[in-house]
Specification:
By secondary structure, this protein is an all-alpha fold. The chain has 13 helices and no strands.
């Protein structure tokens, strides 16, 4: 199997192809028995590695649990060791998911969970009065003109997190995910605000849109610590990769 062929098979199995690439590849599978056999072989390898990975994690967990139960100061030791296990397992899981496992359709995840952020927050009220045109276009779903107005506001020197958030969401609606990520990153680089968690959520969705699962999963994990809708949705999405 040459490298280019192997790379294409891996890209297909990891869900990293565009819709057009996937359709083309599946057409090739129908007429190329060798390609079909090689794809099945790689899928079997991935499944085998997944099983071995799960067994290794179970083994390590039981070893650590045994150490905990034999420790004299069980409460303190249990907290420290389990915290360490969780941190390591989370990191390993993200790396493993990104590199080895066949993933759900990432754009389907984006389409299922993406909803435009509503213009309802109290923090928006004074801004809406000043920037009526931008929010009017946004609420009427004219995202191209809304983005143009938000960009004018930002070019005037505004660094308001709400303007950045709505500019990012307007960009997502226009299939400009990379631009959206840049807007959201400016919010995340600033002091925490009511728009921080929405920015994290939409950043994760944007990374799903462009097929970068490692980054998407990392941002979803940032939402797990609180008990809100973002946390609930993040947990629901992450369960799809188990």
């Amino acid at each position: 199997m040459n490298n280019d062929r192997s790379d294409r098979i891996e890209k297909y199995l990891l869900g990293k192809m565009t819709d057009e690439e996937r359709a083309s590849f599946e057409n090739e599978l129908k007429g190329d028995h060798k390609l079909s056999a090689e794809t099945k072989q790689m899928m079997q390898r991935i499944k085998r590695e997944k099983k071995e990975f799960s067994q290794d994690l179970d083994s390590e967990f039981h070893k650590e649990n045994k150490k905990i139960n034999s420790a004299s100061d069980r409460k303190t030791t249990r907290t420290g060791v389990i915290t360490g296990i969780v941190a390591v397992m989370s990191l390993v899981a993200v790396i493993y998911l990104y590199n080895f496992l066949p993933n759900p359709d990432l754009k389907h995840i984006y389409a299922t969970y993406f909803r435009p952020y509503p213009v309802v927050s109290e923090q928006i009220t004074p801004l809406k009065a000043i920037n009526e045109a931008a929010f009017s276009f946004y609420e009427s779903e004219d995202y191209s003109r809304a983005l143009g107005e938000f960009q004018k506001i930002l070019k005037s020197g505004s660094e308001d997190a709400s303007i950045l958030l709505y500019a990012g969401i307007s960009s997502l609606q226009l299939n400009q995910a990379e631009s959206a990520i840049r807007y959201f990153s400016q919010i995340l680089d600033s002091p925490e605000s009511p728009f921080t968690r929405p920015a994290i959520w939409y950043t994760a969705l944007a990374y799903f849109y462009v097929g970068e699962i490692k980054n998407a999963v990392s941002y979803l994990q940032m939402l797990l610590k609180d008990d809100d809708q973002y946390s609930s949705d993040a947990k629901e999405i992450l369960r799809k990769f188990r």
